[in-house]
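hiii, so i know i said id send this last week but things got crazy w the move. better late than never?? heres the sequnce for the chain we talked about at the cafe, plus the structure i predicted for it. fair warning i was half asleep when i ran it
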Amino acid sequence: MGLLYGKDYLYEEDFFQQLDEMDIPNDRRTAVWGTGTVAEKMMCQPLSCRPELFIDSYKSQDFFMGYPVFAPEQITEWRNYFVIIAVTKDEEIRQFLLDQGLTENVDFAVYQKVIGRPSDLLRRTIFDQSCYDLACNTMLNHLEVFSGGDTRCCCTTFVEYNLDNIFEKNAEKLWHSNLHKIMCLSTENRTYTFCDKNMCPLFVGRKHTKHIERKEQYRQMSEFPKVLAIGHDSSCNLSCGTCRKEVHFAKGREAEKVKQVTEKIMKEYLPNCRFLILAGDGEVFASPAYRSIYQSQECNPDYIRILSNGTLFTPENWRSFSAGKQGKIMLTVSVDAAGKETYEKIRKNGSFESLKKNMEFASTLRKSGDLCYFRLNFVVQRDNYREMIPFVQWGEALGADEVFFTKILNWGTYTPEEFEQISMMEEDQITPKAELKEVLNHPAMKSKIVDLGTIQYAHKTDEIDVVENYYMWELEKRGGKLFD
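okay and structure toks below
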């Protein structure tokens, strides 16, 4: 017809950029702060701005992925750069850049803001050619709040992108943001574009197709998040190699930030929560922040799930936690061993004898009904895989509803070489090594209380096709009907 693109007609995606709240300046050099697994993963994403250099707080190499590496003190004029922070624990770096007079989301941004811009995410899910015959509504009702007030609308292990930080927007604006709507669109259009199909058990063994005809209308997200998972304080009485090198308790600036996040959660998010999950990071009974939440008057949801290392699950702490609570309480304990030597090697500063005593106490609470659900977790790694079978037997003896196994992940605490030696999965992170296969084939692993979680070998694909919330579904698989 003789029409010209850009003059006489446009594509819908030409307007997507208007959804973005942050522009990446093109008149400055781009620098990435971080030379670890996070930075490496970010570089594998489609980026609209390519870095010219990397910054490393503890510089140990001159080049990373072909780019020069500088120490912070080598940067003389910070305003010449747009800095992308690509590390897991970023609070100190953010504060350092603020102290240089820089403005967040103008002069620097965390990597999630760069790779998770609404325009890019909307484009990805609209043109995604893979669809799944599954209705998972988790993103429409679920919010996780973790370090520094960052958020996601599903398990942080299962989705790739953050929503906004709770200090950038109030609860209502964060929950009804364009970014959250796009994440929900990816589940409503059945593409599940932003879900990690190799990690979420809902997708293990599930085939995708190119098109699914949807006859019903798209659902609307709940007015506020009904399921709230909190993990913003890493304070813990143990030092487990999977997440830290030493015992850590928040102090100084970190403690003040934790306090600010806690206060905002209690004021804006807790009153509308029906199902509270405590705590995704740190130890719930060691953290003053978590204690102030579960002892507050605002904390009275219909359901509470405790995530704990179990070493402080004593009768005294139980009475403090459960006082005044009317809702159902569920307990999940991360153990990772079935014997003293292995346990105290993996979970440093822990006492296996104390843990066993506490687990016996938890067992009595489950039998009396004070706990409506009791689960033991086990992160499979080189040092403990031989104890998986006695772990199942221990869980059966305690009357646990479930023993849950998951493969170890590298949260940035290991070098690639170290992780290769620790992991019991092959390089593809899907296939178990031969020694692990032998354990998985043992009759004990067929127990009705065993869930192989993220270990795909011998994992039975769940035939369920409607999931209101992943965590509710996960608990009810073996715990029976827990939620109304």
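btw The first strand starts at residue 29 and ends at 33. thought thatd interest u
miss u guys!!
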